[in-house]
Amino acid sequence: MINEITQFTPPNRILMGPGPSDVHPRVLQAMARPTVGHLDPSFVGLMDEIKELLRYVFQTENQLTLPVSAPGSAGMETCFVNLIEPGDTVVVCQNGVFGGRMKENVERCGGTAVMVEDEWGHAIDLNKVEDALKANPGTKALAFVHAETSTGVLSDARTLCEMAQKHGALSIVDAVTSLGGSPVMVDEWGADAVYSGTQKCLSCAPGISPVTFSSRATDVIQARKTPVQSWFLDLSLVMNYWTDGAGAPRSYHHTAPVNALYGLHESLLMIREEGIENSWTRHRRNSDALRAGFRAMGLDPLVSEDIHLPQLTTLKVPEGVDKPKSRKILLDNYDLEVGGGLGGLAGKVWRIGLMGQSSTPAHVILCLSAMEGTLKEMGIDIVEGAAVPAAQAILFGGDGSGGSSQKAA
Ligand SMILES: *Cc1c(COP(=O)(O)O)cnc(C)c1O
After folding, report:
1. Confidence (pLDDT) at 409
2. Which atom of ligand 1 is nearest to the CA of 148?
3. CATH code for the domain defined by 25-272
4. 407 pLDDT tier (thresholds 50, 70, 90)
């Protein structure tokens, strides 16, 4: 058996699921550069630049801003294990899969999770959160997901952070899917602990989780009575590697994923070159075009216009469609990956991502025509020939005939 194993050559997919998104060749090339030691003087300079670029995408001046050497889930745990101690109460909002994971985290830290639940496909109800904070004085933190990737809903992070502050609680924000694709204004919102991931709108390879902590949160970490139960994610130890202490040189904590960090540096640099505001606008325009196209075809997005995510559209699967088969046709015939439903939405929706490098007019047009071809092949009744022009009208203006003069607008 082992003698039959040869080099792995992955297929060239177009990634339009809930992450990972397409990774730009510039990022892949950066990751192929020679490996240096994780304390090499040249690498220490790169680490500082990554922190600076992360502050830019998070829109923050927070000193404690760094990439955790593990995926988004580890960024989530970093926030909970460092801030929550046994006996703490945390108000956790749940309107999809990821809020449920926050509850797990609180309980494993020995805390009590007070759940505020909303229907899947709806935004977090601010009144219910206010009631929960009032009913639980002394709440340590309010935790919520900004962009729910399981449903495609964006919640009002600014107001939620303000509410937490008004009640003397910290805010813990999941910005895994929002960062880079929707405004994440850490300082303006007064958010205290925010975590993200590299493989969604940052369009880097999976496996790293950027996090940022306010000075308020940093003070809480320093005043802990109990040690952080995770040795690997304990920020007081990790910081000895990511910052220069008082005169002390940086010291080994774990071996950083050196080449993966080259990739992160390059992907953040690409966002800085584009301008983060332009990235938000691009995500919004492409998503508007995709949704207009689907509607023209006769398909329905799950989430209403005012709260839908620009980086991920949940699309209701029409009656009679064999869901796994539809995704297999998209993959086999078009090399196109889209996501299926998660949890309560399993089998009911497709999840179509337009994240980072996967948010381009070319992705929109390909997805619409591939979906049209696939549903036709499956004998599903749809409006033919209307989707692409509807999207083109939004992308390029005019009658959608493809006049390129307005493309740059
Ligand atoms: C993807 C995702 C995560 C988990 O990130 P991983 O990198 O898969 O660990 C957490 N929260 C949200 C909202 C996500 O979309």
Report:
1. 38
2. 13
3. 3.40.640.10
4. very low
Domain with CATH 3.40.640.10 in the chain: 25-272
Taking only the tens place, the pLDDT of each residue in 327-339 is: 999 999 999 999 9
- Best of 78, 80, 177 to mutate for ligand 1, by most ligand atoms within 8 A of CB? 177
Residues of the chain with CATH 3.90.1150.10: 277-396
Band of residue 244 on the pLDDT scale cut at 50, 70, 90: confident
What is the mean predicted confidence (pLDDT) over 117-134?
97
Topology of domain 277-396, per CATH?
Answer: Aspartate Aminotransferase, domain 1 (3.90.1150)
pLDDT tens for 170-222 read: 999 999 999 999 999 999 999 999 999 999 999 999 999 999 999 999 999 99
121 Cβ below 6 A of ligand 1? no
Please identify, by atom number, the ligand 1 atom nearest to the C-alpha of residue 76: 10
Decide: 182 in ligand 1 pocket, CB within 6 A. no
Q: How far is the CA of 20 from the centre of ligand 1 (A)?
A: 10
Mapping DSSP onto H, E and C, the string for the chain reads CHHHCCCCCCCCCEEECCCCCCCCHHHHHHHCCCCCCCCCHHHHHHHHHHHHHHHHHHCCCCCEEEEECCCHHHHHHHHHHHHCCCCCEEEEEECCHHHHHHHHHHHHCCCEEEEEECCCCCCCCHHHHHHHHHHCCCCCEEEEECEECCCCEECCHHHHHHHHHHCCCEEEEECCCCECCECCCHHHHCCCEEECCCCCCCCCCCCCEEEEECHHHHHHHHCCCCCCCCCCCCHHHHHHHHCCCCCCCCCCCCCCCHHHHHHHHHHHHHHHHHCHHHHHHHHHHHHHHHHHHHHHHCCCECCCHHHECCCEEEEECCCCCCHHHHHHHHHHHHCEEEEECCHHHCCCEEEEECCHHHCCHHHHHHHHHHHHHHHHHCCCCCCCCCHHHHHHHHHHCCCCCCCHHHCCC
Residue ID of nearest Cα to ligand 1 atom 14 = 176
